[in-house]
Amino acid sequence: YYYTAPGFTFDAMLRYTDVSLELLTDYDMVLFVEQGIRGGLVQASERYCRANNPKTPGYDAEKPSSWLVYQDCNNLYGYAMGEYMPYGGFKWYDGDLNRSLELLNGMTDKSDVGRIYEVDIAYPDNLHDAHNDLPFLPRNAVPPGSKVNKLMATLERKERYIVHYRNLKQAIANGLIVEKVHRVLEFQQSAWLAEYINLNTSMRKKAGNEFERDFFKLLNNAVFGKTMECVRNRIAMELVSCPRRMRKLINKPTFKHVTTYTETLAAVSLQKSDVHFSKPIYVGFAVLEISKELMYDYHYNVMRRHYNDSIRLMYMDTDSLVYRVDTDDFYKDLVDNPALLERMDTSNLPVTHPCYVGTRKKTPGLFKDETAGHTMYEFIALRAKSYAYKIEGDEKLVAKGIRGHVVRNHMTFYDHKRCLFEVDDVGDGDESEELGTDDDDFDDGDFGDDDEWKDVEMRRRARLMARSVIDTIHGNAAAATTTAISGVKFTPTTLPTYTPYTPYRENVSIRSFEHRVKTIKTMKMTLNRFDDKRVVDDDRIRTRAYGHYTLRM
């Protein structure tokens, strides 16, 4: 018996493929692979665009034609798992590390031996403008002014960057320069997982309803999830009703916390004293790296190669891309260029559509039109996982962390535009003068040669500015809800659901606390244009990746 589908599909995969996966016994190898694990990349490269073509409202024939294209990769992780995956033979490369780069040229996607490199790699300035939309080799880092670790695509030099050999080859081919190789981990690889992935893919194509399609997709994706389980986070839990036993557990060095249910029953959580690294995390690492390689290959070797400077990446979310394309007719381009069309799954387009091809339905690694042939004519992205777009009489909104009923019923595309473009009502730009931070009065000479004092003072002024903006947002939200009858003002924690523009929305959810089900109402800031994954220009639309040479001027 199995409690979950992931547990079932992982065992089914092992039985179906009859593979023997080697577990890492060298702790340095475990840490090496763990440090190279990076999730899906999500970023807003250009935050607003309105298309102009004959199929869009308000088409202006005097202006250049442009299209908005939203493409999604079919079963991205399923595609990656169908490629050559590591399975054993792990050892540190003991040859000349500099020569290991030369050997990289002779390696292919189907080489019997694969490698993971740890390198110092530089991003030449002459590539910054061309790669600004989507820099190679994203890294986990804390953005300036933040406390949260995020995956960001930057143009900075990277030290001790751990990368799969396929991604490193791709980066070098596009101009990045490896300065030093620190370590290389070799392994044996083959397409041992492809047979099981293809089985579920074929079953998904034959599925007659949405449940079956989602189920067979889950059977593929859950295999990846099982290889990525973090055994470090596992805890031991014990239900206790004896005071002596409770004291004994609390005094243990592995004690974490206790949850009290009644006067005589509590659950004690303990950290594991021993951690058994029993998961083939190297498979998950390879899946994440190869999936990124596909997305970069499609962007640079398909779309950018065809359109050159006539295409801009607006937004990316792990397996999807939103483009602005300056062309007369995007779909005509597909018909006229088989090299473009063959990388796309157009089976979701109308049968009468000139680009329709039914034979590539649900093929992993191909890109489908997320709007199913409907024309997207306006797009706006406030930040990662927060965007909206309009298509032929409808609008779609995405807001991670916000309840679905709030997104559907209490948020609009227009709210997003107001959030992005409206001036914060803090004296219409006079706040800098009020706080003594006007550019005309702000001079490095005010601080003398004491850089430390300068940094402290600048941080102090930044806090004042931030506090002023936050107070204004709260004040506007409260003022906007003044009732015409009573004149009573609501605080942001008591705002009603229906209000004029405010970044706040009431979220209602059902949650369990200590096995007691409760209805929770929270007031959340659902609209926020602050994006710290990239440097936003003054127009609030264009952005630059960290490390761009213009940011050093």
TrEMBL record:
GO terms for biological process, alphabetical: DNA replication
Keywords of this entry: DNA replication, DNA-binding, DNA-directed DNA polymerase, Nucleotidyltransferase, Transferase
Catalysed reaction, written as an equation: DNA(n) + a 2'-deoxyribonucleoside 5'-triphosphate = DNA(n+1) + diphosphate
Alphabetical list of Pfam families matching this protein: DNA_pol_B_2
EC number: 2.7.7.7
The organism's place on the tree of life at top rank: Eukaryota
GO molecular function: DNA binding; DNA-directed DNA polymerase activity; nucleotide binding
All copies of domain DNA-directed DNA polymerase family B mitochondria/virus, residue ranges: 68-227
Entry's family note: Belongs to the DNA polymerase type-B family.
Protein name per UniProt: DNA-directed DNA polymerase
Organism: Schizaphis graminum
